[in-house]
Amino acid sequence: MNPVVDYHALAPEIVLTATIVVVLIADLLFPERDRWQTSRIASIGVLGALIPVLTLASGVFTDNHFVARSMFGGAYVVDEYALVLKGFFLVTTYIVLLLSIDEIKEGDYYQGEFWYLLLSSVLGMLIMSSARDLISIFVALELISIPTFVLAGWQKHNSKSNEAAIKYYLIGVISSAVMLYGMSLIYGLSGTTMLRGIFVYLQHAPDLGLILVACFLTLAGFAFKISAVPFHFWAPDTYEGAPTPVTAFLSVASKAGGFVALLTIIFVGLYPQTDGWQPVLWFLAAASMTVGNLTALRQNNIVRMLAYSSIAQGGFILAPLAVAGGSSNHGRDAFQAVVIYLLIYGAMNLGAFAVVIAVARRTRSGAISSYAGLGVTSPALAVIMTIFLFSLAGVPPLAGWFAKFVMFRALLDAGGSWAVALAVIAAVNSVIAFFYYAGVARRIWFDAPAEGATAPRIPAALNLSIGLCVTAVVVVGVYPQLFARLGDVAARSITG
Amino acid sequence: MNWFDDWALPLGVFLPAVGMVLLFFIPKKNETAIKATALLTTVVTFAVGVVILFRFNYHSGTLQFTVNEQWIPVIHSRFHVGIDGISLPLLVLSMFICILAVIYSWDHFPEPRNPRAFLALILLLEVGMNGTFAAQDLILFFVFFEFVLLPMFFMIGVWGGPNRQYAAIKFFLFTLFGSALMLVAFLALYFLSKHPTFDMVQLAKMHGEGIAYGTQLLVFGGLFLGFAIKVPIFPFHTWLPDAHTEAPTVGSVLLAAIMLKLGTYGFVRIAIPFLPRAAQAWAPWIGLLAVIGIIYGSLCCLAQRDMKRLIAFSSVAHMGFVMLGIATLTNFGINAAIFGMVAHGLITGMLFFVAGSIQERFNTREMSRLGGLLTQAPKLGWILGFCAMASLGLPGLAGFWGEFPAILSAYQPAGNISDITFRVYMVVAAVGTVLAAGYLLWMFQKVAFGTPKDEFKDAHIHDVHGPEWIAWTPLLVLIVVLGIYPNFLFKVTDPAVTRETKQVAAVLQQANRPKTEAANR
Predict the structure, then answer these.
(1) What is the ipTM of this complex?
(2) Which of A445, A484, A488 sits opposite B157 (nearest CB)?
(3) Parent domain of B322
(4) I need a surface site. Which of A32, A280, B288, B489 has the fewest CB within 10 A?
(5) pLDDT for A141-158, tens place per residue?
């Protein structure tokens, strides 16, 4: 039987795959000094892939009877949720490309392969957004991860970069194995890999301890991917060792990929078995925010600080999921909160990394002390960095406040002592988090610049990426409905 | 002028933001143009306020100039603004003080200067402050309430005194902690109320209907912490002396004159009407903290050597009177509290201005090193004396009408709040006024009387000059006018306050009735 293929629905993936092939061939054909042209091809390809996402989505906002396109027996679905996230991944990638162009051009790197690997990972993310059965989720997750193992070690002659890659690789492989074992147990119990089938099975499942074990192992695998405490040890070393644009990619896009997998598998598959996932996620969320924040307090390297802060932010993103099982209403609120948080987190974290890259062009250092007096030497960059930092801290009217707000809203909507306890932990943590974000702002504005410090020269592409992020953070902060609507649409398509 | 009614509040709130953006299109070197733009922005904003004053209906007591537009439908939050007699005086005060702040800054930019950034922060602050007083939606209120933190953080941290970094962080952390809990309380109000909504008008109408009494107490606790830290009420006040002392003069003025009022305004606008029964239960405790604040603040004042720190602690004492008035939940008490807020804004703002000018002239605020101001700069000295008199509550000046009725109102609080308790508070608060006279006169004597100390004997101290006169005269005039004819203000606030307290009283009566009946049987 030949499966029916809906080419329009698959167009983003097809365009991206074509781009990957073209980039590889171009790398082969172009002479060494023209290799940087491959970055252009990659950028055009990413924007090109965005077009079918928009045409597919055109129906979503105009009429409410958007029909999800389902393929391969329901294993691959293009619904509103998939489209919102595909759009998010492609835009994020475009910004990462802008960040990387000059960094890769000026560094001693292998250019063509860089774009090829990056785009392959993004292809995995696009597939992940649509994947609705265990096998395609697993394949997508590996497609996301394997290229990033190589990317993390991109600075071949740097021992830290090598260490980063090895750590990331080993832990990534172990987590995949654990997850695969969990999935195999789920398959063994339910007799299907389709998430819908698993959902139906779990609704009437016998009371088996094995189900809990299976859920636990699967979730533990994802916990590695999203670097939730206590599965986070690889993240700070990898983030610090990898080239900074790759770190930005890992901490935003690749992490979001893990969250998308988690959302899909919980809401489409495991939802009825609340005992299997709620307590685990509760613990992961509480531990991630607390440990991430407390460790971030002590960092004096900005990339490590952002790494730990992104672990903490991961805890905030997870929190609503931990109480999503009460009723379909709570589920919807939690789903919405996670999607909105991811979108906003993407904008502000990428922006912060973009500024880090810009500043490092002059200082060649990641020390937080190198930010001293940035407010004097380059005021515009300083204002923008401050906006990102305070947005990450959740201070209105910058986008971060709304992300935190929807998180609290989902927690309190669920109610009950567990949810309220998590809300209190989150509230305390957002105060702690402010301390280290403001610590950097304090360096920037309150300290005097070092002798002879000058403003970094920022290439146009980097400027554009910073501009895009800061616009998003400010506009969404003042008018959050923009992203809220996307979250709402995505949530409706999955949770009804 | 119908279009004006629809646009008045959005203009009044967002014009300063427009002005701030304009500032960044002017080259940094052109300082006069920068200052002029900032001044023009605040003046135009105030002009909007003046037109509002003329078109305001002073008899109705209802919300006016309302705008209610879609904002974030997904979470059911709307852009809903409006003002009544409670918010009008504070809104106009905020618009007014901001003009004076810009004028005073004209040639008083603290190091490291950078007038453009400094003025931009003042304008940003104004957006947050005006917005808070106009907001009628909890989420909108929250956004504006938090919005003021950032500009003030940078104002203290960049332009402040030697210990500025510590003060700035402390200020931010304290308020952030309070507002995190406040936000949780807001969400609880939303989810637990009979009809889930963030609309403040509707929540005030529901009076916490549908929320169990025990939960009401907890939610009120969250609101209390959020507002109490901002006011600040003892024992949450510790950020205030540091922030005030380290902040540049204009920062202290804005902080004292308006930002502290955001907290007390929150009590009047949100905590009490939303949850009157919980307010009744909490009132004795709030009253207790208020009188502790009065006495403790006064005693601290007596122990200060730094003039600015003394004024900062006097704020703690004065806000104690305001909170005592609010805690009575009576019409009289809340009217007095609002009067107290405005009066404190004018007087303490003025005191900080004078302290800033003294520091600028002598390079110190140490009272033991100062003296003989009246001989060296008589006008400045007499202005300081005048403000000290106003601040200690001399009848005939504005300060009196904030303190005296607040003390009187404690004689008979609303609902079934214990009269005895509040009468004790009343006596303690009255003792506080004596202490206030003590520390203010002591300060005045130290700074202004006697002969100049040796180190400043030959220094050339110039008296009050141009921008200072322009910035101060309106404040001084208002202090006298409100002192002689307080009805100017009471007339504005009374209808709205009466409306609110009547509703509160009705709810309390309803709630307290079964108990008394049971007792009679």
Answers:
(1) 0.89
(2) A445
(3) 275-509
(4) A32
(5) 999 999 988 888 887 778
